[in-house]
Amino acid sequence: MNTEYPHFAYPDRPVYIVDGCRTPFLKNTGKPGPLSSSDLAVAAGRTLLNRQPFAAEQLDEVILGCVMPGPGEVNIARIVSLRLGCGKAVPAWTVQRNCASGMQALDSAALDISSGRSDLVLAGGSEAMSHAPLLFKPEMVDWLGEWRKKRPIHKRLQLLTALRPAMLAPVIGLLKGLKDPTVALSMGQTAEILAHRFNIQRSEMDAFALASHYKLARANEQHYLSEIGPVITADGQIFDTDTGLRTDSDFAQLAKLKPAFERHGLISAANSAQVTDGAAWLLLASEAAVNHYQLPVLGQLIDCQWSGLDPAQMGLGPAYAVPSLLQRHQLHFDDVDFWEINEAFAAQVLACLAAWQDEQFCRTELRCDGIAGTVPPARLNVDGGAIAIGHPVGASGARLVLHLLSVLKRHDAQTGVATLCIGGGQGGAMLISRTGATL
User: Fold this and answer.
1) Reduced to 3 DSSP states, what percent helix, strand and coil does the chain have, rounded to the nearest 5?
2) N or C: which end of the chain has fewer CB within 10 A?
3) Nearest one of 172, 187, 180, 75 to 133, comparing CA atoms
């Protein structure tokens, strides 16, 4: 199981990916979805663990990425671990790096395996964005505090005169979470900045969005999404495919949609990632665990790179993270067989592709001579991306890696990169190899 990569983020022991599973990604319908974040994680986890030759109690740890667990899901990883039957002795912890929380879980697990602290780890991400809370305004919270303190009843009645209807208007937690407080911009507004910076036209974005749906439709028809495990809701509904796929849209329909974030902007709901619920898990193992349990190997997690940038241009996160990752391994863009770039916005992906071919950007921002490289369209998000599939923020980083392994296997290819932008101005990228693959 030797690798030919010259450098590692995990230098002591190689880290193998032996299996994985995700739920269908369920598009928000305007009300809380049928499954919470922990429900989703349990559904995918059960499917995955039930087909393993070891018991859940034999895991060394469980690591779950989640941005907005519910108030009853504090340290959601521990709750999910116990519900999966991992037992009291298996530690579990939750990580949060906004859109890359699932990827952070994989990186954290890999570091523990490489260091020898763990041999077998369940790692991934989960998010039920439709369950994001509605909040009271501060003045309403203050009023409720006074209400609890007032005694006797006539003082409470007096307090009612201070209650105003406007105080009852809810604050939408999801919208607050998708706005960066340091630059006072929504994620969509940051995508607008990139569209103007790299002169990306609305027609380019809509064409990219349509292609994402077409590719996902083809992937469904060809049964390429074998990593999906079905979920059953409490009322007996069964979901076995992603529900955000649109096969009835065309270019003219998308062109008619109004801008979603700025009055005269370019970003629409259709060329943005969908608000979605979903979960994804991977099983990571050391070579000792692979041999002990006779586990198949899907591939190897070679390295991970995290980068920071201006939060107002957060969508360029991959543009910074990927070149650093490749340079560390003496690789060029042409050495990567397939790419998964999270489609937070069509403009954001197109901006990253443009940045890598912009000599001024590469010279001033990446400190490199010439352009960084080119990603061939035929090797990028070949089965669609978050615009069609959805972007449950805690889960997407894990989904990208899981599906990239499937793509590499299908094409008998060796090397892949999964990357995504991160709210708050960061980028994450993972280098994956089919080194040691037995399937």
Assistant:
1) 40, 20, 40
2) C
3) 172
Q: Smallest Cα–Cα separation from 108: which of 126, 121, 89?
A: 121
Q: Hey, how many other C-beta atoms are within 10 angstroms of the C-beta on 176?
A: 13
Confidence (pTM): 0.93
Catalytic residue among 86, 352, 362, 421: 421
421 is known as an active-site residue: yes
391 catalytic residue (yes or no) = yes
Q: H helices of 357-439, where?
A: 359-364, 386-389, 396-410
Q: Closest Cα partner for 261 from 368, 185, 318, 207?
A: 185
Helices 101-115 and 396-410 meet at what angle, rounded to 10?
70
DSSP letter string over 27-70?
E--SS--SS-HHHHHHHHHHHHHTTSSS-GGG-SEEEEE-SS--
**Helix H or strand E segment including 94:** strand 92-95
Q: How far is CA 221 from CA 26, 47, 275, 276, 391, in A?
A: 19, 22, 24, 22, 21
Please provide the DSSP assignment of 237-305 as one string: -EE-S-S---SS--HHHHHHSPPSSSTT-S--STTBPPPEEEEEEEEEE-HHHHHHHT----EEEEEEE
Q: Among the options 21, 99, 352, 362, which is catalytic?
A: 99
Tell me the residue type at 285: A
User: How far apart, in whole angstroms, are the C-alpha atoms of residue 54 and residue 56?
Assistant: 7
Strand partners, 172: 134
**Unique residue bearing structure tokens 């079905």:** 230
Token pair for residue 152?
């006797």
- Cβ atoms < 10 Å from Cβ of 76: 24
Full pLDDT tens readout for the chain, 439 residues: 334 555 556 767 999 999 999 999 999 998 999 999 999 999 999 999 999 999 999 999 999 999 999 899 999 999 999 999 999 999 999 999 999 999 999 999 999 999 999 999 999 999 999 988 888 889 888 888 888 888 888 888 888 888 888 888 888 877 777 888 999 999 999 999 999 999 999 999 999 999 999 999 999 999 999 999 999 999 999 999 999 999 888 888 898 899 999 989 999 999 999 999 999 999 999 999 999 999 999 999 999 999 999 999 999 999 999 999 999 999 999 999 999 999 999 999 999 999 999 999 999 999 988 999 999 999 999 999 999 999 999 999 999 999 999 999 999 999 999 999 999 999 999 999 998 776 4
